[in-house]
Amino acid sequence: MKIGIGNDHVAVELKQAIKAHLEERGLEVVDFGCAGTDRFDYPISGYKVGRAVADGTVDLGVLICGTGVGISLAANKIHGIRACVCSDPYTAKLSREHNNTNIIAFGARVVGSELAKMIVDEWLDAEFQGGRHQHRIDMIAEIEQTQGLEAAE
Ligand code: RB5
């Protein structure tokens, strides 16, 4: 499995730690983020990882900025992306099982590296449950594609 990873200038250290952890798990990691601490606008990484997930260049994505918020908002602008910020393993697991998230984000100013690894592991080990959840994912896609939602009319 191939994972795209991206970050901004405040998340370089945590990005390296997560990247190493993913590689230890035997995953291939493609790095779309910055390597140094000079200012690096998070939408660039959010966009690049979002595009890579959406076009199948990578299977899933991990995004890290100060809070995880800005970078996930950027990725979510790409059609087909379901990115969410998770600061705890339970939300990470459920985000995959129920919401079929294809990108996980977290904040380098919010979680430490050990918690971040646990969050990523729960997320990767979880599986989308389908069924009634698929119906809701389809509704989200309808909003994305049409800017409307028939069920809400
Ligand atoms: C950078 O200062 C900070 O705004 C960014 O890392 C992120 O937290 C945005 O959501």
UniProtKB/TrEMBL annotation:
Active site: 65 (proton acceptor), 98 (proton donor)
Residues annotated as transmembrane: none
Record EC number: 5.3.1.6
SUPFAM superfamilies given in the database record: Ribose/Galactose isomerase RpiB/AlsB
Keywords: Isomerase
One Pfam family cited in the UniProt record for this chain: LacAB_rpiB
A GO molecular function held by the record: ribose-5-phosphate isomerase activity
EC class: isomerase
Binding residue positions for D-ribulose 5-phosphate: 8-9, 66-70, 99, 109, 132, 136
InterPro entries, per database record: RpiB, RpiB_LacA_LacB, RpiB_LacA_LacB_sf, SPI_LacAB/RpiB
GO biological process, one term: carbohydrate metabolic process
UniProt keyword annotation of Isomerase present: yes
Record family assignment: Belongs to the LacAB/RpiB family.
Protein name: Ribose 5-phosphate isomerase B
